[in-house]
Structures are given as structure tokens and as C-alpha cells.
Amino acid sequence: MSSFLTAQFELQFAAGALVAPGFTIPDGGFSITAIIGPSGCGKTTLLRCLAGLERPQHGLIQLGDQSWFDAEKRICLSPQERDVGFLFQDYALFPHLTVAANIGFGRSDLPKAARQSEVIQLLERFELKGLANRYPHQVSGGQQQRVALARALIRRPRILLLDEPLAALDTWLRAGIRMELRRLLQTFQIPVLLVTHDPEDALTLADHVVVMNAGRVIQNGAIADVMANPTTLLVSEFFGQRAKPNTPPLAQPTANSAESVQ
Amino acid sequence: MDWLALSVTIRLACATTGILFVLGLPLAYWLSRTRWSGRFLVESVVALPLVLPPTVLGFYLLVALGPRSPLGSWIVSLTGQRLPFTFAGMLVGSVLGNVPFAIRPFVAAFSNVDQRIVEASWCLGVSRWATFWRVTIPLAKQGLLAGVILTFAHALGEFGVVLMLGGNIPGVTRTLSISIYDDVQSLNYESATRTSLLLLVVSFVVLCVTQRLTRRGWPA
Fold it and tell me: Which value does ipTM take for this structure?
């Protein structure tokens, strides 16, 4: 079966940690895949490898018919060459630029008028009208998140990577913003990969789940399937009371403790 | 007040600052980003003029640039001119002596730029070169400006290197600090007082400005 995204690679850090995930995303339409696992298991490193910000030593990353990384053929596209939207944990907005300039930043190839109309469209779509001339520190956390999303999506990437998109927000805001986030993302017909440490994020946002531990994928599949059949204690513990391992827990993969670059 | 010396001093400080800005930006950017284990060597060379007596630097340059050295004779064959005891020679000494006052603030300014913001720009398809100008420079601007002002202020007071390498030629290599020295030698304390006060006030104002600049960052 051909798949939309194939990620099968190994990155060994000088300090000894190994991140070696392997998983696929079957099609290029809308779906949210949550990457979960204990902190330091390599979730963020996985996203950074997909975006081209880290270079693995072995394996391949393929999107559609395009090779983004292929160790054997010595292919490694730069972040600029990959059709990817990346949302950083604290959003990494440009503090010296207005909300509108942040959103339009990646489309400086367009003539000014065309860029402005794109920006206005996105401001409306992300309910940011009236904030165009504010600076990032002058808008709320939820609004910053939407600015960062609009900034990433203005280039119409083929895949969207979100690193802990809700961690920077106040707890009491999260539930509302979660539903809002899924509704917004659904209007862009692209797969979303979302790294989170919060089971609630995975349960309410995601269709699929990839569970990582010590740098490796230990289980993945549709979220209901994974919850119904957790293969390890770790997975059942992650989902708390909602899932019980009904098969004897497999041996934990030999701990090659991996660190994610936070 | 020696107006000729003032004009020489300002020309020297402007030229020194300009050269260090152009040459220093790429070096400082590289130093702020490299993970090379030998970077401490480069950093030490950069910091050397902070602790080395300026006369020592001036002496080495005098020997190295003199007509009997290979470098000096090469420069003479190239330009038909000796460097010691000219404005250009004094400028070489001033640039080298002021390296730490430019490079170190530049490195600090670049290091304070959050790398994730730079990576965010790359992920938006903006080239490394364009990101440098559209993100890194604007975010480092205040620190860079502080380095420029500091270099200019320090170059204004250059004495040791200049004396060794430039001599004391009115209108060519006699700077304000050398003119103060001359005034004192000839017991002209009135003139020395005026010139000293000028340098004191300028230095103080400059430091006030740099302190203000480096304290203000971008709000998160």
C-alpha cells in the first residue's frame, strides 16, 4: 500500500541518545495524528527531522512522490524546500513585526497587493480581524497561536507539524481552544501531526495516535484501536482509566534513553 | 583646543568603526552560531587587545609593517607607500586594537536572538540569507548599535597603538589623546583640561546610550 508520508529514520546524538521512529500516514487529506510519549522520548526531535531542522544519519523521509530525506541517495532537502508548516511550542512569532506582517512573512514572493489580500483572508478565517496592526506581545496566547497557524498555513503546506500547540496556554482556556483548533484545521485539507504530552489533547483532537518511548514507536493506529488494545503498560497508563491492557504487556524496548531537543 | 587633532581623531574613529562593522558582522555571526570546539582560540584572539598593552600591539605592528619585514616590503611594492607614520598605518593599528570592542557586543547581540524564531523563518521558505536580514539583524539591532557606539567611543581615545604606529604628525596622525600628552609635556594645562573634558563628556554620554540600548529587548 502506498502511503502519503513515510518516516523511517535514525538520528544518533553525540551524547548517545538515539531517536529512531518509524511510521506512515496513509493519505494526504485531513487527519490529525497525535505523537505521544513521556517527555524526552524524542517527539520534538521527530518533528524537527520532518521539518529539516535536524538531519538523521540513516533512513528516509518521503512525502507523496518526493524524497525529503534519503540517507542512501544522499538527499536531504532544506527546511525551505519542504512543503511543511511548523508550529513551534511557544509559537516563535516575529516580535518585531505586526500580526499582519507575521502572517504575510512567508509570501514575500507575492506582489504587495496579492499578499495583502491573502493576509486579510486569513485574518478573517482565523478571527484575528482588528488585530492586524498589533504586535505579538499585545495579543492573547490563544490569538498568538492563531497568528502562528495562519503564518504557517498561508503557504498552503502539504503537511502541518504542531509542537505542543496548547502547552503555552492557560489550562482553563485549553478545552475551548482544542475544539476551535480542530474546526480550523479541518478547513485545510492536509494531514496534521501533533506532538503532545497531554492525553486530553490526543483524545479530543486526534484521529490516529503514534506512541513513542525511548526514541522508538511502540504502538500506532486509530486512537480507538490503540485505546482498546494497548500493547504495553505505558500506553494504558497514558490513557489512564480509559484503557486497560488486555494482552500481557510486552517487554519495554531496551532503554536507549532518548532526549528531545526542546 | 587642537582642532586639527579633533578632525584627525574623528576621521580615525569613523573609519575604524566602519571597517570593524563590515568585517566584524560576519565573524561575530559565525562565532555566535558555530559549534566548532576550537572557537575558544578565535575568541581569545578577539579578546587579546583587552589585556595586551596597546604599546605591545603597536610595537608588533610597527615591526610587521616596516619596510624590512616581508609584509611591509610587499605593501610598499603594492602601493608604493610605507604604512608606519601614515594615517592608513594608524588606522590598521586602531582597527586591530578595537576588535574586542566591536566583536564582543556583536556576538552577544547575535547570541541573544532566539534560534527558534530564525528556524520559524526557514520553515516559511525564507532563505538563510533573507532570514539574516529580515529576522536576525532587526532582532540584534540594539546590541549591534551598542557595539558600534562603544567602538567609536573607544577609538576616539586611542593612544598607545597610535603613538607607536602613527607618531605625532599634526593633521595626519596627531589625535586628541596625543595632543593632551603634548600639552602636558609643554605645561599647557589649560588646553589639556579642555581636551580631556571633551573626551570625558563624550565617553560618559556614549556609555549612557549603550547601557540604555542593551537593556531594552523585545517583549516576549
Answer: 0.84
